[in-house]
């Protein structure tokens, strides 16, 4: 299975994204400032059988619940056709100048599909603007976007997004590590490759994709973990079928990274 960038992705992927972007432009009209791509497709390691499409959208002002309803209906239709979409809608004046934690106006991923469907039916969507959300993951998304992202429509991302303080980016990726650690047995490929790229940043300030992180891990982390990381890369790249990882070795890898983070924080 080949890996793709935005420039080389399959026709079905490009059609999904272009169609979705056109629909966003129609719904948001003059409110829309820009649509931005980050994640594996922007960094050239998109696997059509397992990767999400990761996007950020910036608008002029906070959106009405009626516009949000239109957007969620569009997302329910567009996501998983064929790839899952994970997306956050941000308001320009709420993100620049930078504040912490960063607020979002609307978020969608497949995790929220059933809840969104239910709220559209039972009328709870009418209260969406009564809740305000923040997400420290945005510190990581925007940092990656600034360095490796792609502007799909509108103003260039360098003009729109704030510079994220390094301490907040680090806090976000360490928080992500501990979150992935909780599900390492059921989501081992993500845990392993993401941990490798976190190590790479803490060690030398390199921002890597999960694939690049895995390659880094093969050459940098202890030799006992080479088989573990190689298998994670093979599965991620589509060269090997999904399989369970050896629990004891996975635990030793986790202990190694726990200790590394602890020592890094104490330094």
In short:
This protein is 53% helix and 12% strand. The protein is of the alpha+beta class. It has 2 domains: 11-160, Beta Polymerase, domain 2, CATH 3.30.460; 166-266, no CATH class.
Give me the secondary-structure topology:
Elements: H1 11-28, E1 32-38, H2 40-43, E2 53-59, H3 65-78, E3 85-91, H4 92-95, E4 103-104, E5 106-108, H5 113-122, E6 133-134, H6 137-148, E7 150-154, H7 157-160, H8 166-182, H9 188-204, H10 210-220, H11 226-236, H12 247-266
Parallel strand pairs: 2-3
Antiparallel strand pairs: 1-2, 1-7, 3-5, 4-6
Helix pairs in contact: 1-3, 6-8, 8-9, 9-10, 9-11, 9-12, 10-11
Fold and architecture overview:
The protein has twelve helices and seven strands. With 267 residues, it is α+β, with helices and mostly antiparallel strands. The chain has two domains: 150 residues, Beta Polymerase, domain 2 (2-Layer Sandwich); 101 residues, no CATH class. It starts with 10 loop residues before the first helix and ends with a helix. The longest helix is centred in the C-terminal third of the chain and has 20 residues. InterPro entries: AadA/Aad9, AadA_C, NT_sf, Polymerase_NTP_transf_dom.
Regions with pLDDT < 50 over 5+ consecutive residues?
none
Query: What's the CATH architecture name of the largest domain?
Result: 2-Layer Sandwich
Shape: globular
Number of helices: 12
N to C succession of SSEs: HEHEHEHEEHEHEHHHHHH
CATH topology of the largest domain: Beta Polymerase, domain 2
Give the class from helix and strand content and strand pairing.
alpha+beta
According to DSSP, the number of beta strands is 7
Computed over alpha carbons, the radius of gyration is: 19 Å
CATH class descriptor of the largest domain: Alpha Beta
Strands of the largest sheet, in order across it? Answer: 5-3-2-1-7
State the end-to-end CA separation.
Answer: 41 Å
Main beta-sheet annotation: 5 strands, mixed
Write down the domain tally. 2
* Beta-strand percent range: 5-15%
On the 0 to 100 scale, the average pLDDT is: 97
Estimated helix fraction: 40-55%
